[in-house]
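Researcher: Here's a chain I'd like modeled. Treat it as a single chain, no partners, no ligands.
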Amino acid sequence: MTTFKSEFLNIMQERGFYNQCTNEQGFDEYLAECEKKGIPAVGYLGSDPTGDSLHVGHIVPLMMLHWFQKCGHKPLTLVGGATARIGDPSGKDKLRPFLDEKTLQQNIQGLKKSFMKFLKFGDGKTDAIMVDNWDWFKDINYLAFLRDIGTCYSVNRMLTMDSVKSRLEREQPMSFLEFNYMLLQGYDFCYLSQKYGCRAQIAGADQWGNIVSGTELGRRRYDIELFGFTSPIITDSSGKKMGKSEGNAVWINDEKLSSYNYFQYFRNIGDAEVGKCLRIYTDLPIDEIHRLEVLKDKEINEAKKILAYEATKLCRGEADAKAALETATKTFEQGAVDNNLPSVDVKKDEINVLEAFIALGFVASKGEARRLIKQSGLKLNDKIITDENYTITTKDAVNGNIKLSQGKKKHGLIILK
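Model: Modeled as a single isolated chain. Structure tokens:
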């Protein structure tokens, strides 16, 4: 294991965030010099506002920025109000749908809320700042941009980038609009360098080509070395990307996903992922992580509880983490029904059992619910459901609650009016 001069890169390596760097030695020396002088380095993370919340998969580079700030550096969060109007082709098979102005603004506010859960914003020298690339792109003259920026790019080189090459190899069409994306992101990096002294871009591995377009533009057009630093794509032991739970995104913002469900996502991860997730999704000391990740059998469940609690505390706050832990303890260890379980209000006094499970989001269709009933996988008040035509009414309430369960891990309440 390499020992770096800078605190930030040492943390990145020991916690599993380090994937690639455009100039490892140069970046390390730059950061170490800043840390020695007490002058914050400036780095940025960009996100296009194509949705109104980030999800667990997005947390990886966001946690890198979280540690960047904890090491005394200044984070910039860029929302792509301009680039969202084009759409990043990386990993995509087709052009993203265009968003209207109202949706874009709502999404930008949602992303800021996600960022604020992991970064401290303000006017201090290491406080985070959020910027929108629409502010500098909206008035750019197209011919001037082609002359000043376009001449720095080789089409031959652009065709070798993964975001372009993979699309062409799959024989999926790519519009000229999307082909321009890496020019815009490259210019973002250079603009932030000129205005804020930003020398680093932090992102996931899938953004490597776009990052390099910025570092090369900095060298050719502005005669400055910029640094790109990426994290690996985090997967579970089956190779599936982290951040999805049975096809549903594990959202960061609480209006999109309850803190209890956020807690349960981490509580239910596989044994092999415990150490990895403790390093990435919490800020527990590394010595404590070493102790927890070697636990086996029943003891690993205690490590999972700590992981779920710490990850929820970091994202949703200590009060929500405590409430989620208490609900999980009552439900799974004491057999009690907690009112903080996920619930759905039904504005009538009865509901078909299949519709009830759909309303709770436990199943996507009646067909799926029927299959689970045949497999004895659905329960009403802890009793196996055998009749798919059963109608749940207020008479099914036990101590005022109607509890529905899917397997051993999913529990929720139906509230009839």
